[in-house]
Amino acid sequence: MSIRQLTPFRQVYNAVEALHDCRRMLSELVAAQQAPSSAAAAPVADCPQAPIAIYDRLGFRLLLDRDSTIDRALIETGEWESEQLDYFATLVDRMRGREGAVFVDVGAYWGLYSLVAHRSGAFATLRAFEADQHNFSQLQANLFLNDAARSVQCINKAASLDDRPLLFRHSGSHADGNRGGSGVLPHDTTLPRVQVPATSIDAVLADLGDTPRDVLLKIDVEGFEAYVLQGMAETVRRHRVVVQVEIFDLHAEPAFEQIARLGLVPIQRLYPDYWFTNHPDFLPAA
Fold this sequence. Notes:
Elements: H1 9-34, E1 52-57, E2 60-65, H2 69-77, H3 82-95, E3 102-106, H4 112-120, E4 125-129, H5 133-145, E5 152-155, E6 158-159, E7 166-169, E8 184-185, E9 193-196, E10 198-199, H6 201-204, E11 214-219, H7 225-230, H8 233-238, E12 240-246, H9 252-262, E13 265-270, E14 273-277
Parallel strand pairs: 3-4, 3-11, 4-5, 6-10, 11-12
Antiparallel strand pairs: 1-2, 7-8, 7-9, 12-14, 13-14
Helix pairs in contact: 3-4
């Protein structure tokens, strides 16, 4: 029997080994922190092929799920919705310096647009809707990882026209793994679903008062656009808004009808995303 197998020598040996392990792990963490960040940077996590790990992408530290379509695309290419994000960035830049500016992320998934808006420093108020509990947890994790948890108010509800609960597709039920494709379901559906609470954009922004604010909204709600837009009529009436809405052809008619009722004017299209406004500074030249 070797001396390291005897008590208390075994305990001392194990303690020293544990200290060596801690030193190794700290060295790896420091090296990862000091490495230059880029869109193609290697995952910070030790197991990059694990389904869920932390990556450096788009200048953010992100908890991403390789089994989810959007996450996997970002992990492998370093990009997602590049054209839309570029145009979004121009709008954010034009919001800079406007006192009390507001950003609202409706259907935030894990928070890419919220993180971009937060990083810009252009907004006094940032709020993010995400109804799916699984996605909501990932949203909170990514805000925490990027020092945005205290700045972005997260709302674990579906955006709608009122506060009646809705049936929501479970984010893990998509055959193609698109967790970002969760949305409201009809009551007669047989798809995997959960009941979620709901509220309106008007209710969430009621505390802004009647003093006009500059409000930038991103809406991505998988076919529920008309109801969400209907629930922001007071916001449009009171404030100067610019709205980005994802609208696929299948749901276009009711969405565009509601946009017309709100008196919003189109300013850009990068299908399936459209931008509308009532803001005099963002209206197209006559």
